[in-house]
Structures are given as structure tokens and as C-alpha cells.
Amino acid sequence: MTRLQHSQELLTLQSIFEGIDDAIFCHDLDMRITHWNPAAEQLFGYSHEEIIDESVYLLIPENRQQEKSDIMRDIIAGKRIGQFKTIRRTMAGVEIPVSITISPIRDPEGQVIGSSQIARSIIEENAAEEKQARLAAIVASSDDAIVGKSLQGIITSWNIGAENMFGYTEQEAIGQHISLLIPPDRLDEEDVIIENIRAGKKVDHFQTIRRTKGGQQLHISLTVSPILNKTGEIIGASKIARNITAQKEAERSIAKSMERMEILNSISKSINEDLDLQHILQKVTDATTRLIGADFGAFIYNQVDQAGESSWLYTISGASKATFENFPIPRNTAVFQQTFSGEGVVRIDDITKDPRYGKNSPYFGMPEEYLQVVSYLAVPVITHSGVVIGGLFFGHQEAGIFKKEHEDLVVTVASQAAVAIDNSRLFEEVKNLSDKKDEFIALASHELKTPLTSMSGFLQVLQRAVPDGTAKIFAEKALNQLAKLNELVNDLFDISKIQAGKLQLNFEPFDLSDLLDEVADTFEQAHTAYHLKMSADGELLVSGDKMRLEQVLTNLLGNAVKYAPEAKEITITAIRIGNEVHISVKDQGPGISIENQQQIFSQFYRVKEHERNTSGLGLGLYISKDIIDRHGGRIWVESTQGHGATFTFALPAFTN
Amino acid sequence: MSTKKVFVVEDDEDIRLLIDYILKDDLYQVQLFPDVNTLKKGLSFELPALIVLDIMLPDGDGVEICRQLKANAATAHIPVLLMSAHRSKKEILENTHSDGFISKPFDINQFKAKVDEYMMAS
């Protein structure tokens, strides 16, 4: 190397030494600083003048001075120490993390005569590292599964949360495709997610289902964000999955509870409203079967026939009745016995494994062609008085379907059903008694008619045979009384028919004016003392039972005679008003009080003021009202006390 | 020519007596039967010009007997008057093809007039 070359190189090195961003300084073997560049001045705060010839230990905190001595041994031995991270102290006494590269300085003979040091502050680098460590700790400790994956869907990172949630260890998961976690029917979802990620879009709180190593399905909420490299390029995705299975379960269980409440409510409502036993049992069976998710449910009566077998009176839900046709369940089989004896609830996860199952000939279990029951639940239905009316039986083809909660639900329904069944039985008893009463009245009235008929006939013969005089008059009076007696028997008979719902009407279109004329004629012949005023509005067509409507008119006229005996004028008005025909019978009697007006059409009701003076059962207006009602008409009374009473009935006018 | 006959089926003895008395006439003979069984025997000997038939009989139902008579070619032509204690038998009339209806208790004149009417026509 020429001298010139040598001096040029020195100048170059000098320029580098002055211009470089890293702090460079040198010291001799006495540890005295010999060189100090501007960057060193910048980093440590000492100026060139202040530090030259000072000990390098000025820059080293006390607890690091041993370290420096150790390094110096290596340097003297000719070793170079690269990027050693340590702490140095500034002029202001602030300790700063630095990365130092220390090299020996040799003389032309190769002897180490000092060392050069290049130092760089690593404060920022440290902060980034710390941040990363913190993030790593957060990721590691999170309960959420945090998974990194490439754009190809390959798993690149896997935290403890992911391990816990999905059951795969980090080693098992990394390198696998993310579809490892996706149920087959949801594989399409991944395409959509990746598409979003490629477009730089985050997928937020996407609720879906993922699969664990054990095959269990989890409801999760997914947030997937793109991972960008330093140049902003998307290189993968981070996935945060939160297990919301519990939340979903809670939501489902709330919805289920609501549904159950509604079903329970509807059961109690319907069984309280209904008195028909078969209906009640069908409703209870249907609702409980739905309530507990059984394949089928049945109510079986605890009734024993003479052969000791339970009668096949039952309702069934979820299967056709034909499925059970001719399938005898002997009541004393070990399985059924506990329910019918009222011992309590039987709930079995797998009835086919129960020692009591399949012990009975001829089937030894369920015959193959019948429903296969595995899960079994049976609840006795016990009345207030402790009688086991029957049992609610439920089955499911899978094992372990019925839980304690289902049992509790059915027990609740069963107790409600027991009350309803009690009520319904009571009602049926009362109804039977009432039916018997109606039958009796029908029979009695018929029996009464036979002597009435012969008496009436013989009296008529006598009345015609005797000459005019007292005997003839008496015979006539006796006949009148017989006619009244006949009407009473007729009323009794009608009442029994009305109550049994068997009063038959025969509808035909006819002119009501004609009927009025006939009734008026008959009335005037029988009551010569009365004056009947008629005003009919021409032809008044109605569709009705002529004989029954005649009965109504006769009843109204008869009442006018009975209750207003002093007033000899009765007015009948027949007019058409709109689509109705109105017939009124008006008397000039004492009238009817408001209180009586309200009750006059009810059964056995008789106007109180007249009770002692007039005969009758109090059935006439009740029967009349029933007849008019059955014609789709109305009947009512208008009266002011002291000014007579007007009874009116309205019938729909007949139109072709 | 033999005198025309009317058959009366009625289980109550007094009513039978009464009807016999009312219908006694030079125009026709009255033959009385207490039940269905005897009526059937009577019909096997000869056929009347009219049958007056009570509905409630100890060994049968008049409505059913009437239906049978009307369904039988040998007796279908004989008019049948049904008797009943109950007013609402009109619907029965419509279903039995009987020819008339007498309500119990009855007016003896009307009863006689109705029977006469059928006997004259026959």
C-alpha cells in the first residue's frame, strides 16, 4: 500500500467513523477511552473532550463491571464479541439497553493493544419484544381459541384455548387443514370466510358449529381477521372462536321452557273446560307426548275385566290406534304392575335391558311388528281419593331420552288430569241421573195418558148420552179439567224431550195468518166470554213446525186467560217488520212487574203474585221460548203494571 | 158380500172397549187385538179394510209394524191409522207411509169421522 493510498483509506475510515449512526468508541488496555465518535456523544451524552482519556467504566453500571472484565479477557485473547446485549449508563446516569459488538485492536505486530466498541441502543427493539411477549401471554392464557392459518387454510398457530376447546394439542393441529374442525355440512363456510379474508375483510361474530376431536358439536362465535405482513400483504388469518354452546343451550332451554309453559297452560285450560273424558285424555296424551318429545304416548285405564286383564280403553298419541289393535297388555306384567299399583313413576333409560322386561308370554318383550320402545316413562294418574285411574305411558326408540325434568312435567300434568277426570266422572254421573229422570218423565207421561184417554172417551160418551142439565154441565166441566190435565202431561213430556235435546221439529213453509185464524176459531169456541181482536198483515210466510207454533200461540192465549181473567179483550197482531214476522198477544190484565219479566221464560218459574190462584207447572213459556229459539226467532214481553202485558215472538220470514 | 172389517190394535182394555163402542156401526165390523202377536194371527186369516194401530204396544212398536205392513205386497194397500199419546209423532208419519194419525186422548166424534172416512173410501 502506498503512503497516498494509506492516507486516503484513513480519511475514508475517519469519515465513516464520524458519520455512522452507531456509537463507536475505543479504549486501550488501561481502559482509557481513546476514540469517541459523534454518535457515541449522541448516545451517552459525553462530548469528545469530556470523555477522552476517561475510564470506559464510566459508561458501565456497577453491576455490569464484572461482565466487562470477563469480556476483556476474551478480547485480549483475540476474540471478537458480536451483538452482545447489555446495559450501559449515560452521562445523565440513565441506564439504557444496548447491543455492543466488541473487537480487539492490534498493533502492526498483531499484539492486542485495545478494543473498539460499536454500540446501538435497543430500547425500541426491546419494547417491541416486550409487546410481543405480552400478546403471546394473552393469546396463551385466553379461554377463547385463537388459531392462525394460512390463506390455504393450513393451521399455523394454536393456543391453549384452542387445545381446550377442540381437544387437539398444538402438535396435532399445526400443519393440518382448518377443515379438521368443520362439520362436513358446513365446509362451504370456509370458502366464504377465506374469500372475505382475501378481500381484507374481517368476519365478525359469525355464529356457527364446529367439531371437536371427540366429535362433539360446539356452537361457536367466530371472529376472523386477516394477518398482514410488513408490506401490507395478506398472508393468513387469525381466528378467534368463542364457545357459545352454553349460551345456545340457555337460549334453547328458555325457548323450551316457554313452549312447555304454553303447553301446560293449554292443557290445564282445555281440561278444565272439557267434561268429556275421552277428549280430556286425548288432549292430555297428545300434549304430554309433545312436551317430553316422546315417540308415542298412551293413557291406559286401570280397569280390570273379569278375566283379570286390563280393558283396552285408552287414548294414544304418536301412533295409530291400529298399531295396538289386539295387542293385550296383561295388567300384572312386572313392568306395568308398578304403575297400576300406584307405587310411583317408572323411568328407565333402556327398558330392553331391564330385568323386568320380556318376562311375559307370548311376546317376551315387544312383538317385532309393534313400536320398539327403549326409553320408557310411566306415571300413574291418581285421583284425590287415592284411586289409580290409570297411567300415562311414554316410549322412545332411543335410549336415555326421558330425564328427571320430563318426569316432573308429566307428574304435574297427571295430577291436573286426575282432577279433570274426577270432575268428568262426576259430571257423567249427574248426566246419567238426569238422563234417567228424563226417561222416567217420558215413561210416566205416557202411562198417565192411557187413563186420560179412556176417561176422556167415556166422559164424552156420557156427556152426549145424558139430557141437558146438571149432569151434562158436570160432564163438560170434568172434560175441561181432563183437557188441562192433558196439557200438563204434554208439558212434562216436552220438558223431558227439550232437556234430552230430543224435541223434534218438522219445518215446512206455511202462512202464519192461516194458523192464526185456526187458533182464533178454536179459542173463541172454547172461550165464548172473550173477545179476540185480530189484525193480520196479509200473507205471512214462515218456515216452521206448524203444530209447535200452534202450541206457542195456544200457550200465550191460555196465559192471557189465566192471568187476566177479568179483562175479556185480547188483541192479536201479526205484522211483517223487515225480514221478520212479529206476532203479539196483548191482554188488558194487571201487567207483569219488571222482576217477573226477567224470569218469566225460565223453567218452573211462576209469577209470584199469582202462585196461589193459578194452576200450572211454570213450563209453558219455557217450552214456548225453546220452540221459538229453535226456529231462529225471539220471544219477549213488554208490560207496565196495571196496563196489561204484550207477548211478542219474531220469526224469520220465509223467502223462496 | 161380507161386511168390511176394521182391525184395532190397542193394549189398554178400557180404550179397546171405548173404541169398540164408538165404532159400532152397521157399515163395518170391528175386530180388537191387544198386541202385535194377535194382530199377526188375525191378518193371517183375513185382511181388514183399515187398521187402527197404537204405537206403544207391549210386544212391539206400532211404527215398525206399520212399516212392515207397508213393505209387504199383501198388506201394503191397507190404510193404517196410527194412534199415539204424544203430539210430536208427525215425523213418524212421514217416515212410515201410514195414512193418518190420531192423538190420544181423542174427541170421539172426530175419531169416528176419521175411521168412517177411510171405511167409506175402501
Short description:
The complex is a heterodimer of chains A (656) and B (122). With 656 residues, chain A is α+β, with helices and mostly antiparallel strands. Helix content of chain A is 42%, strand content 24%.
Report on this structure.
The complex is a heterodimer of chains A (656) and B (122). Chain A has 656 residues and is an alpha+beta fold. Helices cover 42% and strands 24% of the residues of chain A. Chain A is built from 17 helices and 22 strands. Chain A has helices at 3-19, 38-44, 48-51, 65-76, 123-141, 160-166, 170-173, 187-198, 245-273, 277-291, 334-340, 404-465, 470-499, 512-526, 546-563, 594-599, 620-630, and strands at 23-28, 33-36, 81-89, 95-106, 112-121, 145-150, 155-158, 203-211, 217-228, 234-243, 296-301, 314-317, 346-348, 375-382, 388-396, 508-511, 531-536, 541-544, 569-577, 580-587, 634-639, 645-652. Chain A is rod-shaped, with a radius of gyration of 55 Å. The model of chain A has no long low-confidence stretch (mean pLDDT 83). With 122 residues, chain B is of the alpha/beta class. Chain B is 43% helix and 25% strand. In chain B, strands 2-1-3-6-7 form a 5-stranded parallel sheet, sandwiched between helices. Chain B has a two-stranded antiparallel ribbon with strand order 4-5. The longest helix of chain B has 14 residues, at 108-121. Chain A binds chain B through residues 445-446, 449-458, 460-461, 464, 482, 486, 490, 493, 497, 503-504, 506, 547, 551, and chain B through 12, 14-15, 17-19, 21-22, 56, 85-88, 90-91, 94, 104-109.
Can you tell me the CATH superfamily of chain B? Response regulator
> Level of helix content of chain B?
40-55%
Rg calc of chain A = 55 Å
Radius of gyration of chain B: 13 Å
CATH superfamily of the largest domain in chain A: GAF domain
Poorly predicted runs of chain A: none
* Oligomeric state as shown: heterodimer
Largest sheet of chain A: 5 strands, antiparallel
In DSSP terms, counting alpha (H) and pi (I) runs of 4 or more, how many helices of chain B?
A: 5
Low-confidence stretches of chain B: none
> What is the global morphology of chain B?
globular
Assign the CATH topology of the largest domain in chain A. Beta-Lactamase
| Strand order within the widest beta sheet of chain B | 2-1-3-6-7
Q: Give me the count of strands of chain B.
A: 7
CATH topology of chain B: Rossmann fold
Please give the order of strands in the largest beta sheet of chain A: 2-1-5-4-3
The overall number of domains of chain B is 1
